[in-house]
Every structure is written in structure tokens, then in C-alpha cells.
């Protein structure tokens, strides 16, 4: 399921990044959920011409490290995502829909992240 990404408008990116930083520093969600949501948000904002994927995956590592999930060594998230590349792409695509968080599409997207 290949979908064309429409990144956030350049003028709205600073506020969206500020919101993402605040979310990434809030510990009210489990670390894995926070990392997955932050990564999806970053990829949707898509602030750079190139390197958004690498930066988004680095954000996952940063959140895990800050939250104490991986205080020392963590295999690169990109290794796991490359193994299931299409699931990764589909999982990000599912986060870009409008609808209830309890919908079947939302559940399927979450399961792509945690179901492996």
C-alpha cells in the first residue's frame, strides 16, 4: 500500500516540532508507545529534504535511552525496520488517517508496531 506523503507546510513546522519535543519529554505513556508515536509524528512533519527516516529512527533511540529502556546498547531500530520494510511503511501510512483512535485501521497500525 504505497501512499504519497504530503509533509506539513513549512510555516507550520516550527510549532509542530515544538509540540513533538514536548510530547517526547512527557512520560505519561509507556516508552514503546511514546517512541512509536513520536517517530510517526516526526515522519509526518517531514522537516528535511533528506534524512527524515534516519532522524526519526534516531528519535526512537533517544526516547528509549532517556526513558531507561535501553541505558547502554540497543540494536539499530533501522535493522528491525529494514527486515519488515513494507510493514514499516504501511504502519506509518496507517497513522495518517482521520478517524477514531478505536477504529480497525488504528488497531492494525498499532499492531504493526507491537505485534512482532
Describe the structure.
The longest helix has 16 residues, at 52-67. This protein is 61% helix and 0% strand. The radius of gyration is 14 Å and the shape is globular. The chain is built from six helices and no strands. The protein has one domain (10-114): Fic-like fold (Orthogonal Bundle). The mean pLDDT is 82. It has helices spanning 13-24, 31-45, 52-67, 77-83, 85-94, 104-114. It starts with 12 loop residues before the first helix and ends with a helix. It is mainly alpha-helical and 116 residues long. It comes from mine drainage metagenome. Pfam families: Fic. Residues 1-116 form the Fido domain. InterPro entries: Fido, Fido-like_dom_sf, Fido_containing. This is Filamentation induced by cAMP/death on curing, related domain protein.
Produce the secondary structure layout:
Blueprint: H1 13-24, H2 31-45, H3 52-67, H4 77-83, H5 85-94, H6 104-114
InterPro entries: Fido, Fido-like_dom_sf, Fido_containing
Protein name: Filamentation induced by cAMP/death on curing, related domain protein
Domain Fido: 1-116
Amino acid at each position: 500500500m504505497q501512499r504519497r506523503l504530503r509533509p506539513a507546510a513549512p510555516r507550520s513546522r516550527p510549532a509542530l516540532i515544538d509540540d513533538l519535543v514536548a510530547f517526547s519529554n512527557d512520560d505519561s505513556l509507556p516508552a514503546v508507545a511514546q517512541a512509536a508515536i513520536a517517530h510517526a509524528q516526526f515522519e509526518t512533519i517531514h522537516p528535511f529534504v533528506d534524512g527524515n527516516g534516519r532522524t526519526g529512527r534516531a528519535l526512537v533511540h533517544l526516547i528509549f535511552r532517556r526513558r531507561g529502556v535501553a541505558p547502554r546498547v540497543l540494536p539499530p531500530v533501522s535493522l528491525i525496520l529494514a527486515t519488515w520494510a513494507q510493514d514499516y511503511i504501511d504502519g506509518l501510512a496507517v497513522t495518517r488517517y482521520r478517524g477514531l483512535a478505536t477504529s480497525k485501521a488504528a488497531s492494525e497500525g498499532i499492531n504493526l508496531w507491537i505485534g512482532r
